[in-house]
Amino acid sequence: MQARDWSGWFHVLATVLAVLGVFWLSERRARACRTADDAAAVRAEQCRADAILAVARGANERAARIGGLFAGDHVDLTLLFDAYDESILASLIGTLDSVPVHQLGSARGVAALLDMRDLVRRLRKTIQSGLEARRNASIVETGTRPQFDSVFCKSVRDQVARTNDAFAVLEAIAVADRQLRRSSASDLEPTY
Description:
Helix content: over 70%
Radius of gyration: 31 Å
Distance between the termini: 41 Å
CATH class: Mainly Alpha
Largest sheet: 2 strands, antiparallel
Strand content: under 5%
CATH topology: Four Helix Bundle (Hemerythrin (Met), subunit A)
Number of helices: 5
Structural class: mainly alpha
């Protein structure tokens, strides 16, 4: 072989190596972009789940405040009407109804949120039935201020406790799902 033949073979080999290098770099960049897109999707899913959990937390806190009115065996209606309005629970139920539950990311989370929503509905119905009973004069009268009886107050407290328990389950599921997302997101991190 002559020197010019070696030069030709060197150019062919250099060209093949350059093409392979460009292919390798483009494949590496494409993989990094796919990984970044997958990680962004996991973060977006987590943000949606956090927003839904915040709505549920707000509903739970409001139910707890309403339940605080029924802490004793009797509730003063004046205090009740100062702190409670039926539209509050109606608004909470409307908000919980409009939450896109499918964006929670897990069937367990969806079931827990639906359970909590039903319990808030039941709380609303319990209080409304108590107010209706008041209108029908089936309330114990103490002095000059009308009050609910102890059975009704216990029923409301039980409803609030169940709502709180349902939120605790939802929150535990959300935390477990978040940890699962983090572990799957760390699996997506590019390795070079």
